[in-house]
């Protein structure tokens, strides 16, 4: 059954950029800031201030990860990217997010993406994020309560899976998330054993405050996925429905970075003020009624367990509205320098 699941995953969930957008030069170094490797991206200068790591997963693959450090960070964001990107394409965005949110960022390429070995499968992504999480704990000394998991599109799968197994995370961000792999294609009402990334069945086991960000005009993963996941969350933060936003351009909207910043600040204050309780009133919502920006306008103890195939069962989403099927393949990410120019033009610099 696992082989069938992997085949389904490969058909509609994974589209690694070919060829990879980066190369790695330098020696063999482990973690903790060795800085002996460099990640080279075409037409971009190499950065000496980013740790480039190779991590061995429990499934025997060697994945590439990067660690971007901010001097004033009190939290670390573990970022799982979408299915048509790799670290080279996302690098500048990670640097910008680290600067603007004042967080450290750990990001990784899934097995079969970029310079990571192996093949992309559902269970490999779970092993991949576990390896990145273990590196944060063992090599960087990061505690669970300092970690914010961030999952974009397909990356919401490993993000929700890991979040469902850790009790004391600081927060979780789901960016254009999916209910499950099959539900992206068909409005099914139950979970089948061959489905992948069953976020709809796992989100109820996430105990921290969850922020959902989704574009209302998403042509790949309908916005109903994000709305239904938000409804099923135990701890809800005001969602961000970006009006007119698609699947690969949400970073171009000023409310994206404003609301993400507000969420990170809220988590920091909640941690500093209460040091533990997860249930709290969310910040005042100004995510409704958002519109596309006009050019030149004003800025408005954790245990790794083996993966066991799940049997068919009725799904939680049987009490929710059915998802609208979308079959279009995810497109490549936008240019990160375009994102940077837009944010700076709007004055959204912290």
From TrEMBL:
The UniProt record lists the Serine aminopeptidase S33 domain at: 74-180
Q: Which InterPro entries match?
A: AB_hydrolase_fold (IPR029058), Hydrolase_4 (IPR022742)
Q: What is this protein called?
A: Serine aminopeptidase S33 domain-containing protein
Taxonomic superkingdom: Eukaryota
Q: Pfam families of this UniProt entry?
A: Hydrolase_4
Q: Where is this region: Disordered?
A: 273-338
The record's section on Gene3D superfamilies has: alpha/beta hydrolase
Per the record, where are the segments of Basic and acidic residues compositional bias? 316-338
The Polar residues compositionally biased stretches are 282-293
């Amino acid at each position: 059954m696992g082989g069938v699941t992997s085949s389904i995953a490969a058909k509609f969930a994974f589209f690694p950029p070919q060829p990879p957008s980066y190369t790695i030069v330098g020696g063999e170094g482990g973690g903790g800031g060795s800085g002996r490797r460099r990640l080279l991206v075409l037409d971009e200068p190499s950065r000496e201030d980013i740790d480039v790591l190779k991590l061995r997963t429990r499934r025997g693959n060697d994945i590439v990860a990067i660690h971007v450090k901010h001097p004033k960070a009190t939290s670390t964001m573990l970022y799982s990217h979408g299915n048509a990107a790799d670290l080279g394409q996302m690098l500048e965005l990670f640097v910008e997010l680290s600067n603007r949110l004042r967080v450290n960022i750990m990001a990784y390429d899934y097995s079969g993406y970029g310079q990571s070995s192996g093949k992309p499968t559902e269970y490999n992504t779970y092993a991949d994020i576990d390896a990145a999480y273990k590196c944060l704990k063992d090599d960087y000394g990061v505690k669970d309560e300092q970690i914010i998991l961030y999952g974009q599109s397909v990356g919401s799968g490993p993000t929700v899976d890991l979040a469902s197994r850790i009790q004391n995370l600081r927060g979780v961000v789901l960016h254009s998330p999916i209910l499950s792999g099959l539900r992206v294609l068909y409005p099914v009402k139950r979970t089948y054993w061959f489905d992948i990334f069953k976020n709809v069945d796992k989100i109820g086991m996430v105990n921290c405050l969850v922020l959902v960000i989704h574009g209302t005009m998403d042509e790949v993963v309908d916005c109903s996925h994000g709305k239904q996941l938000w409804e099923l969350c135990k701890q809800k933060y005001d969602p961000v429905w970006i009006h007119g936003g698609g699947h690969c351009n949400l970073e171009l909207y000023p409310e994206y970075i404003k609301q993400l910043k507000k969420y990170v600040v809220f988590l920091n204050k909640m941690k500093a003020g209460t040091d533990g309780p997860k249930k709290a009133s969310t910040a005042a919502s100004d995510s409704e009624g958002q519109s596309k920006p006009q050019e030149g306008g004003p800025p408005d103890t954790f245990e790794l367990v083996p993966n066991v195939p799940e049997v068919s069962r009725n799904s939680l989403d049987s009490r929710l509205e059915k998802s609208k099927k979308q079959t279009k393949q995810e497109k490549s990410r936008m240019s990160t320098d375009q994102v940077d120019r837009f944010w700076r033009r709007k004055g959204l610099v912290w």
